Amino acid sequence: MDLDVINIETFIRGQRYYNKYDPRSDLKQDHKLWVLVLNQAEKLDHDLYCILHGYRCVGTRLKEVDGILKLKKGVEWEKYWVDDKEYKVESHKNLLPYRNLIREILKRALHQSEQMALF
Fold it and tell me: Which of 2, 31, 62, 82 counts the highest number of beta carbons within 10 A?
């Protein structure tokens, strides 16, 4: 096998792994939190992992509000939904069935992030 082909395959595998836990690492502000959230989601519920991964792909942010980690739509949302109403309807349809699990995952991720900040 050609060495260039091996290098490209190795690169692609590396990129897939790197993007597995944050497909939008260009959004630096909450990158570390997304790595924690998607890692937890993958372990607990693959369907939820896929949904959250998709929301991150379109720029969804994680923000801490009053000690609680929350999902917030990013500035890019307008590229994917016609208006705010459509975004909310779609988000409720996709996320509401998982609300308790999402809450737990976000709580764990925030706790892990706080623990990591101590070191």
Answer: 62
Contact (Cβ atoms closer than 8 angstroms) between residue 71 and residue 55: yes
Spans of the chain, pLDDT less than 70: 1-6, 15, 17-18
Q: Which amino acid is at 3?
A: L
Enter the pTM of the model. 0.83
| Res 2: pLDDT | 59
CA-CA distance, 12 to 66, in Å (whole number)? Answer: 39
* Domain spans in the chain, listed from the N-terminal domain onward: 3-117
CA distance 61 to 39: 16
Widest distance between CA atoms in the chain = 55
